[in-house]
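Troubleshooting log. The previous run stalled partway through. Resubmitting the same two chains, unchanged.
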Amino acid sequence: MWAFLVTEVMFFGGLFLAYTFLRWKHHDAVVAASGHLDWILGGVNTGVLLVSSLTMAMAVHAAQEGKRKATVNFLILTMILGAVFLGVKAFEYSHKWHDGLFPGFNFHWIENPAYAGGAEMFLFLYFVMTGLHGLHMVVGIGLVAWIIKRANRGDFTPEYNIPVEITGLYWHFVDIVWIFLYPLLYLIQPPHH
Amino acid sequence: METASTISTTTAPTTMPGAANGVFEMPKVTYLNAQEGIKSWLLTGDHKRIAILYLISISVFFALGGVFASLIRIELLTPGPELDAEMYNRAFTAHGIIMVFMFLIPAIPAVLGNFLLPIMIGARDLAFPKVNLLSWYLYIIGGALTMSAMVIGGVDTGWTFYTPYSTTYSQSYVFLTGLGIFIMGFSSITTGLNFVITTHKMRAPGMTWSRLPLFVWSQYATSLVMLLGTPVIAITVVLLAAERVFGVGIFNPNLGGDPVLFQHLFWFYSHPAVYIMILPAMGVISELIAAFSRRRVFGYSFVAFSSLAIAIFGFLVWGHHLFVSGQSAYAGIIFSILSFIVAIPSAVKVFNWTTTLYKGSISYETPMLYALAFIGLFAIGGLTGLFCAALGLDVHITDTYFIIAHFHYVMVGSTVIAYLGGIHYWWPKMTGRGYPEFWGKLSALLIYVGFNLTFFPQFILGYLGMPRRYHVYPPEYQVLNILSTAGASVLAVGFMMPVFYLLWSLKYGPITGPNPWGAKGLEWETASPPPTFNFDATPIVTEEAYAYDAEADEAAYQAALQQGKR
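Second attempt completed without errors. Output:
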């Protein structure tokens, strides 16, 4: 699993490189475009994910102790929190579409036209990075659902609980990716509004 | 030095695979016949069967890539246009994409590595058999998508997909091809993941890291590169595809983007990918040299760690593809130095192989011919690589046939040669039958001659200034181009011959028994072909890798000569 996570780091790494380049080359446009992201909603989501990591860790702990019921409950909680995150994200996405900030198909930059190109690229990267992250969340929720089923069946014991642990690792990884994405995308300048 | 063409050991009555026909019988239950029917193959978890699936599919793709190569060489026979420019662009793009992504990258890891890695470390299978099967399906799906793009019209960007041509201007099927490559990338990642975990977790008792065959070391290093590099090309292809669809312009200077960013991302994978191709080949050569000179590989730990060194330094040299792309002079100098440094571990290997030959009891069967060819051709390919790594000279030879010749010496002259050598060496293990030695040697010779005739003139062409990727050229280049096309024809015959005699040997080849070469290594201690779970009982390893005794073997051979038994 660790080897797989290294692969994932490299996968996101390419995007972070593109981001670094963009921010260096179009600094002002990136700042302007970042202002359109809702840092409060992003912050709420950060909180949701952090709590979900806590519940995940509790689930892994419970599985190691052999507490089947606690494992299942914590896993269900994790899943709900994951779904809340995705719900907020979907709300944000639809908002961007309404505001004409969706690159390629529905993009209308009404502010300083000099920033239009850089802003579109920034929002493009925003959608690719958070979209990819969201995809990982969906996979994560699927994994947790599978683990819940197995835990209910009584598959896990204090001796054998590796699937819970590696699902936990994956969940934490996806969480950490968000911890990087949130400040890089949302918190570029101190919010004025 | 002896001039003997055969050697004798106590374990093998002869080195000719199957010359001892009648002595051995085919084992009754093998991985090949343990289950029957197409379904048992398509749903198999057996690493050996998956290797065979890969062998078949890779051979088909190699043939397809070869067809496009023939088109290129026919076009270049004369200075004028036979194909129009569009068609020629599609032909060399198809050749590059097929050969790189569908043949060279998976060839040795997915065929020989899949088959041998678990057996060599004494395991029953890879760590995740189902993931292994998944990797084959990903490969086939990705390959089919890419091939369908070729069928409906092809791609004209070159295998490097440089932006902004590929994102903005090309009218060809870039998206579909990219999707195929993206999917095949995951096939590569899953294979690498499986190899790393298997090597860590599933070694037989006594199989310490310092006893691993060097083939396993090289596969391990390769897998690390696959794990670290492939995701970067995957995300690059995603950005490329998204940019084509959304037209955002991250790589497009007109919209404020930067095409060189694409080149950085692309070569961050694609240069290490060169090491995905060459490292496993080096592993094969270590096995062949040891087996046919009956000596432990000289400087075992240096050879093992040079694989890791190549894997690590390989990640730090991608900028040498961008010397003329407008990267800063300082970056150029550093990448140049690092590119020279990566030559050191490669040279360590070459010197250690040649030193292994010294005082060995050498015999010249087909696999050994390939191994010796490899050393010579790789030396040329590697040393001309240093020409390209030198900043000033590279400006002169960038995008000329010199580059083409250089990387074909590495990719064909080294990787394909090692792959064929490995296929011949382990063919008796995979099938239980030997191939005809005469035809094997003849085809090795044809490939060697044909290869050099094809590509050596291209060094000169490139140095004289003939640029790559043009379908027409000035008439003064024609003589060398004719030589090259003639060589390609010889090469094609050489490549086709093994198809026939290896298929022939499946039915008529002599039965070889478990260890036709008298070689060391766990793979030779089980039946040929091996049973489904490789060993009847888990082997216990008590000795170093390559515990050969060249002097004893030589003495036994001389004694047999004197008694008139030879």
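Takeaways: Chain B touches chain A through 30 residues (CB under 8 Å). Residues 1-16 of chain B have pLDDT under 50 and may be disordered.
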